[in-house]
Amino acid sequence: MNKLENQIDLQIESNRNKNLFHKDATKTMHFAQTLFDEIRNLKGLTENEVNVLIEYTCEKVVEEFCRVNQYYSFGEDDKKRLKDIYRDLYFDIIQKKIPMNLLSERHYQNLKSWVEESNPFSKKMYQEEDVTVNPVVCCEYSADIQKHILHLQLEELPEPILDVGSGKHGNLVKSLRAAGLIAYGIDRFSDCSWVEKADWLTYDYGMEKWGTIISNLGFSNHFLHHHLREDGNFIGYAKKYMEILNSLKLHGRMYYAPELPFIEQYLDKNSYSITKHAIENISLKATMIKRLK
Question: 228 and 201: one domain?
């Protein structure tokens, strides 16, 4: 299984930054012969082992799509459909009835349709003439940079602390815990023991549970993106924004950047206070909201 997983990683690497929406994508994107042969020669795999292989493949594929464009969002139904795509693909390869070039063309067409259905904006964003795409920048910032941008003063942070969209490595969470604070994180991808793998739109934040919630260029950045998109999930983000605020304890705080003036203006001033901080060399500001009652 480890050998197969390595081959899957190499397969994804071979198509890195290629445009799935290019007019000849089914020709520019292709299967690696080594992976194809490895799967075709599989024998005696249990159903559980096949499921593990499919799970690994889909997790890596979703991670790669999100690396290319951080605004891609895939729900549980989308992931289930992706698993079905790869289950069918692996079954067809093992059956040895369809040539590799035809399987490849059909597979990448299926992937394209899957992305279009799950993230309709992608069809407008990527042009048929572009063979490759430029990834939408998504950096995992150091703890010090995040503290600076959000004006975090550790002695002022009520506990427990939750970092929403903490990044795969949970840099800020690790730094806060090293300072003796009770801190956790959530992120779509995680290899940190204090960061739970979760989607911020489906995560249950609870009621009056958190002393501090932090999200640097994470939740609010995506909320702004959906606010500006014609097909954006503005309502879903607005509901989750209020859920997050309701999960703060009395006098709890939420720190985030960029600011969200289009929804902040409607917050009850008797329930929340809003403090703004300028971000150096950027026109946007960081926001701190404190729950008053």
Answer: yes
